[in-house]
Amino acid sequence: MKVKSTIMDQKAMMRAITRIGHEIIEKNKGISDLILVGIKTRGVPIANMLAKKISEIEGKDVSVEILDITLYRDDLSEVGDNPIVDSSKFNIDISNKTVVLVDDVLYTGRTVRAALDALVDKGRPNKVQLAVLIDRGHRELPIRPDYVGKNVPTSNTEIISVRLLETDGLNEVLIYEL
After folding, report:
1. How far apart are CA 62 and CA 46, in angstroms?
2. For the chain, what is the total number of helices (H) and then of strands (E)?
3. Closest of 72, 60, 127 to residue 94, by C-alpha
4. Which of 69, 87, 142, 158 is deepest in the core (most CB within 10 A)?
């Protein structure tokens, strides 16, 4: 694989996070009863960045929860023979709250479908919204994000790689060509 181009650098990523934060606040008329839920792995640091930005704007903290969807994936047999069961509980009851699911890249929609299944096992939110840093198209399921950092039309031979400070040592989004 070779790098085709850099889609977002650190500054572009932070501008997208700022814009998404403002959009979340505006659409929900504030942040009361709002919880951000990061889809493990890269959705979690993005949710934390959003929470920090929303806190700067509103002057109040927003809770961030971590959602592990491993056991809810429809390709579980491809993930491994003995998947690890994540028995973690949310620190906050999500029932009757507005939950914003956060992930790095939206592609086929299968990860979001699995996240919705996992979320229902944690409680019954009043409303669920979806925020993604990158929407690359090619949906296989009828799933549409509420908040998008950047739309990046891709071919099936391209790969989007979101690199984050917490997991990769820097913030950037790259597109690779197979």
Report:
1. 13
2. 5, 8
3. 127
4. 69
User: Which string of DSSP letters, residue by residue, matches 64-82?
Assistant: EEEE--GGG-TTHHHH-SS
Return the residue matching tokens 């959003």: 50
**pLDDT tens, position by position, 73-103:** 776 555 455 444 455 689 999 999 999 999 9
What is the DSSP pairing of strand 98-106 with strand 127-135?
parallel
Distance CA 12, CA 141 (A): 29
Domain segments of the chain: what residues? Answer: 11-156
Please report the pLDDT score of residue 85 as a whole number.
Answer: 46
Contact 68, 86 (CB under 8 A): yes
pLDDT tens readout for residues 33-80? 999 999 999 999 999 999 999 999 999 999 999 999 988 877 655 545
Compute φ and ψ for 57, nearest 5 degrees. -75, -45
Whether pTM > 0.85 for this model: the answer is yes
The C-alpha atoms of residue 60 and residue 89 are separated, in whole angstroms, by 23
Domain spanning 11-156: which CATH class is it, in words? alpha beta
- Rounded to an integer, what distance in angstroms lies between the CA atom of residue 76 and that of residue 82? 10
